[in-house]
Amino acid sequence: MSNYLIRGATFPDGTAKDLAVENGLIVEKTENAEVIDAEGLRLLPGLVDLHTHLRQPGREDAETIETGSRAAALGGYTAVCAMANTDPVADAAGIVEQVWRLGREVGLVDVQPIGAVTLGLNGERLAELGAMAESAARVRVFSDDGHCVHDAAVMRRALEYVKAFDGVIAQHAEDPKLTVGAQMNEGEQSAQLGLAGWPAVAEEAIIARDALLAAHVGSRLHVCHVSTAGSVEVLRWAKGRGIRVTAEVTPHHLLLTDELAATYDPVYKVNPPLRTAEDVTALREALADGTIDAVATDHAPHAREDKECEWAAARPGMLGLETALPIVIRTMVETGLLDWQGVADRMSHAPARIAGLTGLTGNGRATSGAGAHGRPLAVGEPANLTLVDPSARWTVTPDGLASISRNTPYAGLELPGTIVATFLRGRPTVLDGKAQA
Ligand SMILES: NC(=O)N[C@@H](CC(=O)O)C(=O)O
Ligand SMILES: [Zn+2]
User: Fold this and answer.
1) From the CB of 409, is ligand 1 less than 6 Å away?
2) Are 84 and 113 in contact (CB under 8 A)?
3) Sorted alphabetically, which Pfam families does this protein's record hold (predicted)?
4) Disulfide-capable partner of 189 in 99, 258, 355, 407 (CB 3.0 to 4.6 Å)?
5) Does the Cβ of 174 fall within 6 Å of ligand 1?
């Protein structure tokens, strides 16, 4: 393994200095190293995504663990949490182990499987949570994402069950009775377009209920893709009461609004739907003040036939891995809402903490599973690194992305920030902006 000297990079706290990498670790100094001139570049701890749909097994025509891993590395990620809504569903130890192993074989990013909460995502019977936790994949996050665990008794049991191994239930908060036939955000836009609406209360009511359940059983709740100003209020209230709840927001909910539905272009169809400009403002403020803990991509690749069709027939979801950091720079850094220390926290430290990925043994090696992420940029820590050129601008082209799918909502948009290099345990997965495998 080569040694690297990253010269003159600007750390999250604003100081510019050198960083040496040897045998996968950050070290004091190194010799015979490959030098990377990083003057003017920003160094971040490797990004961690709490919410990635890799589509394997089942929809390898839309994405695979390999193509999704490449997209992740190119986006600056060193770890992604793979959602359970695959086919078959990741609701048993054998399946999460397979996803975890395939991720290791590709080796571009640590793929940490998320286990389903209920068998087959049917919302009724709990999946093998304990067996998945004890498996080689060491699952700590469980989610029926794509579906809401809507039965309060099932949600309560799941929250109770994962306490034994400090697991967390990541809820796709959507009361299904309130979103039957929904096509977009319920509001002025949906009334004008004549499309059935997905009201904010369908999300907010479930977050409030689940926060109370988590408090009642003394367990840990994570809320996926928070999308409304009301949800932010509920989260603020819950956190103020000391309830152990964390939340994520997607880059698209930080930038795009429901006015885009007027194009009837299904690329803008997503769950939860794009909301109003007021919601976007509230989400940005909540991410800035920590009410929302993390940015998560909800990278949701879809095959052509599932997106290039009528709005009502299209599947919800957008690509996100390769554009996440640039969108965060544009919406949060360039607006002055978040500094780079904040970016490091919301995109690396916090998501790693929520997913239980920060653990190390005494010798500085990862305990098990996918390994240690979201650690400080300090001597002795694993060299999971992202090097960004914040002043470079680039224009998104669907064909220029590493994903198999093409459903980016940002085609033609100019964005700030290119990923120059990504290091996974001291090995470059991206160098000079190019994937290394
Ligand atoms: N976000 C989406 O619109 N779609 C996701 C499921 C989900 O995250 O809810 C998918 O799997 O395609
Ligand atoms: Zn979801």
Assistant:
1) no
2) yes
3) DHOase
4) 258
5) no
Domain boundaries, the chain: 46-374
How far, in Å, is the centroid of ligand 1 from the Cα of 204?
18
Looking at the structure, give the CATH architecture of the domain made up of residues 46-374.
Answer: Alpha-Beta Barrel (3.20)
ipTM over 0.90: yes
364, 384 in Cβ contact below 8 A? no
Between strands 294-295 and 34-37, the pairing is unpaired
Pairing of strands 385-395, 4-10: unpaired
From the candidates 49, 144, 279, 298, give the one annotated as an active-site residue: 298
Which tens digits make up the pLDDT trace of 376-410?
999 999 999 999 999 999 999 999 999 999 999 99
**Residue 90: what pLDDT?**
98
pLDDT in tens, 78-99: 999 999 999 999 999 999 999 9
Q: Which two tokens stand for residue 201?
A: 């209360």
Whole-number Å distance, alpha carbon 31 to ligand 1 midpoint, is 47
Binding site, by residue number, is 51, 53-55, 85, 145, 172, 225, 271, 298, 302, 316-317
CA 299 to chain centre: 7
For the CA atoms of 170, 176, 181, 186, what is the dihedral angle to 10 degrees?
-80
Active site residue 298: yes
Q: How far is the CA of 423 from the centre of ligand 2 (A)?
A: 29
